[in-house]
Design goal:
By secondary structure, this protein is an alpha/beta fold. Helix content is 28%, strand content 24%. The protein has a nine-stranded mixed sheet with strand order 11-10-9-8-12-6-13-16-15, with helices on both faces. The protein is globular and about 65 Å long.
Length: 381
């Protein structure tokens, strides 16, 4: 059945439904960056006004959110209502279908926030539940759920991950002094927020110049969250990542991928591969001979990446913006001025009219000690 046909049978839900779905969304937030290629789903089981089970997607091959909530609820799940942030799966993969688990547990009603466009689901999960006598309502906090699942949804529909561009800048949009000094423009609280951002993404990407000049480790260094470090990706057409860099030296301990031009000779890559770096080959843009970023994102999506954080440099940021491949901006701004001779956060965009400038909508603002943090979503089609 088409999603539009399913939606026509849905009902407007009350405040209780929104309350419990918000709780499910909060649970799903916990696993972002940890469960790719799966979506980070949250599930709450409620019976007679009491929460009897809670679950969120576990790292593969662990339980999906619904099965985890049912496991915790035990016999109390019979006759309950399940609040799920994404349509339950109805096919066999690493785990059995969640729809069958809900049906066999005797769940009476399922409230779904957003539909799953994955071809093996795409409305079939809801229809299977309804055909088994389970009441299903769809669309409670839909916008919030789609925003949370944006990475998974883009992976399915656009064959690329959600792209978040992180910028830590001065008031005048600069990321390093004229001498190249950049550590640290922002303060400790902003840096902690930046590490939390890393932990919520599947992969983190930088350009070759940033990898050479800053020699970053690109991990999550918050106490107790080291295991939440994302896959590290370096974009380097000519494989110019130094073998003595932190990324190369630690590649055997932490997944590290390098995106290179498809024509790179195999012999030129052997030394990097010996360090443990996985090589990804993509084509080049015929206009400027840079790596094709759409192909790059597609290659990451094919490997299961749903949420990608980009941390530099200015040329890579500009290329992604010009290609309309940035979905969200995470801005951290320090109360200092560095001037026109310092390094800009964004490279040349060649904007000759304000009407043509890439536009974003601010969603959140937060004060972090002396720094300011803001998040934006793209307004460009």
């Amino acid at each position: 059945m088409l999603q539009s046909e399913l939606a026509s049978r849905d009902v407007t839900s009350g405040e209780a439904d929104r309350h419990y779905m918000a709780m499910a969304l909060a649970l799903g937030e916990r696993c972002l960056g940890r469960v790719w290629p799966n979506p980070g789903v949250g599930c709450v089981l409620v019976k007679e006004g009491v929460v009897v089970g809670r679950g969120w997607t576990q790292a593969p091959p662990g339980n999906h959110a619904e099965v985890e909530a049912l496991r915790r609820a035990g016999d109390r799940s019979f006759g309950s209502t399940a609040y799920v942030t994404l349509e339950p799966c109805c096919h066999y993969g690493r785990t059995p279908p969640c729809t069958m688990a809900l049906i066999h547990a005797g769940v009476q009603r399922v409230v779904v926030a957003a539909m799953d466009p994955f071809p093996r689901v795409d409305g079939r999960g809801i229809e299977q539940l309804r055909q088994s006598g389970v009441k299903v309502d769809v669309g409670v906090l839909k916008a919030q759920a789609e925003a949370q699942h944006a990475g998974f949804l883009l992976n399915v529909t656009a064959k690329r991950p959600l792209v978040t561009l992180k910028l830590a800048t001065s008031l005048d949009g600069r990321i390093a002094t004229s001498s190249g000094e950049s550590q640290w423009i922002t303060g400790e609280r902003a840096r902690i927020a930046g590490h939390r951002l890393r932990a919520s993404h599947d992969a983190i990407m930088v350009g070759a110049n940033t990898a050479r000049q800053d020699n970053p480790s690109l991990n999550c260094r918050l106490p107790g969250m080291e295991a939440w470090s994302p896959v590290r990706v370096v974009v380097s057409r000519g494989a110019r990542l130094p073998l003595e860099s932190q990324l190369a030296q630690t590649a055997k301990d932490h997944p590290t991928w390098m995106v290179v031009a498809s024509g790179m000779p195999e012999e030129a890559l052997k030394a990097h591969q010996k360090t443990g770096i996985e090589i990804i080959r993509v084509g080049q843009d015929p206009e400027d001979e840079k790596l094709d970023l759409r192909q790059t994102l597609q290659a990451l999506a094919e490997r299961g990446i749903t949420r990608l954080l980009v941390e530099g440099g200015s040329a890579l940021a500009a290329s992604l913006i010009k290609a309309k491949l940035v979905d969200r901006l995470a801005m951290f701004q320090a109360p200092v001025l560095l001037g026109g001779d310092s390094l800009p956060s964004i490279g040349d965009l060649i904007v000759d009219r304000l009407a043509h400038a890439p536009a974003f909508e601010r969603k959140t603002t937060e004060v972090l000690a002396s720094d300011l943090s803001a998040t934006y979503i793209t307004r460009n089609p």
